Amino acid sequence: MTELIPAPRGAVTGAGEVRLTRHSRLHAGTGTERVGRWLGAALRQATGLPLGEGREPGEAEGGIGLRLRPGLGPEEYRLVSDGNGVLIEGGGAAGVFWGAQTLRQLLGPDAYRRAPLGRDRSWTVPYLTIEDGPRFRWRGLMLDVARHFMPKEGVLRYLDLMAAHKLNVFHFHLTDDQGWRIEIERHPRLTETGSWRARTKTGHRASPLWEDKPHGGYYTQDDIREIVAYAAERHITVVPEIDVPGHSQAAIAAYPELGNTDVIDTTSLSVWDTWGINPNVLAPTDNTLRFYEGVFEEVLALFPSEFVHVGGDECPKDQWQRSETAQARIRELGLADEDELQSWFIGHFDTWLAERGRRLIGWDEILEGGLAGGAAVSSWRGYAGGIAAARAGHDVVMCPEQQVYLDHRQDPGPEEPVPIGWVRTLEDVYRFEPVPPELTPGEARHVLGTQANLWTEVMEDHARVDYQAFPRLAAFAEVAWSPLPAPEARDFADFERRMAAHYRRLDALGVAYRPPTGPLPWQRRPGVLGRPIDGPPPSR
Question: Where in the chain is the domain with CATH 3.20.20.80?
Fold first, then answer.
């Protein structure tokens, strides 16, 4: 019980254990049927136990019962393991699902395998009572599939890994300068042209090496529907990100009229093949607005999430400063400068999304020039943007790069593969605090939660993503879920002790995590790619 990650709010152990055998049954009460189907399938796959339909919870000795319990919050649950079997109660189906994830941990690492070790084996759960629920409503992971594409099966695998750690928001970074990854039927060239680049910078931006072969891929709308449905079954919300007005060269390469055509020859642009901040940004024209309204119409039909992310970060203003079209728009709107022009651009889509019952969220640069009324902020450049937004009454997701950018290196040693950015160890992530002490209690209520970000410039396949994400994502999950004390008072030694068991779960799941002793030989990448960069990379 004490090896659970994330740690539960409260737990009391008893003397004895429940034994699950081939005769045990699983009963899912009204409102928990989908959780029951998921749990039955997951446990049958790993244990070989049939776990057929049982009687009412508490009446099937040695079995598992699931049911809703009034009075608990939507994601809260109560798990009781005693002489009657295992009973999981939740305030909503999500709470029951998180309780089911706890049960899976209690059954041991082998409960995560994809094939049973022995069909005659019995499985035990210690007698205990757990009362649990999350600290934050937004417990997120952002995955960048624009820099390096991850096939659909890999995305589904990460949804499973998120669910195993009680994370519930998947921020899907679908577009950038280096690739457009979502099919838009009315604008087919976005994927025909925008989803492929001719070559790719190998390693960080200082590297002189290139992989001289095409890289790309995209998700069809059917793929997206499958991903969203798969996430929903695991009580994970998928928040799509379509970047505007910066990070848009892939879109401009596909449709040159979207760029600042009076400043550069946009027909000469291709999908970008390196990293950093790109100068080619969208033109602030009615044509651009109508084009992206069409994009967002299809996005809204695919993603039912409350929030839609529009990026809004790292938009250089040089082309707007030199563009007579952009300057004319500034004069027409009575704006002070290019920062206010970007604010107008973001504000347009804030209003457009609000009229359709959705909410805009963007990176903290959307504060510049004035923040759109209903917008929320992803605070990535430290805490300052989130503090300013919360004090102004805007909701905030805390994801400061100095703490939770998991593309940053995990160790200062020379063997760390592609060691970009700050050193952020497992302990550093465990001591991350999402709510700044400068906020009053009323302001702090605007902190929806927190999110870890995986930017994939130097993550060319799922093994590299695994290495950067784990085990730090396990520490982050506990920060997002558990009622931890102040960072300096957190018991990291106890977390490390529990991680010893959790590494075996990750092994069973096939996760290529960074071992606590350092990278294995096959995980190292010596030479030019391994030269440390002093300080953070220049671009998020």
Answer: 138-530
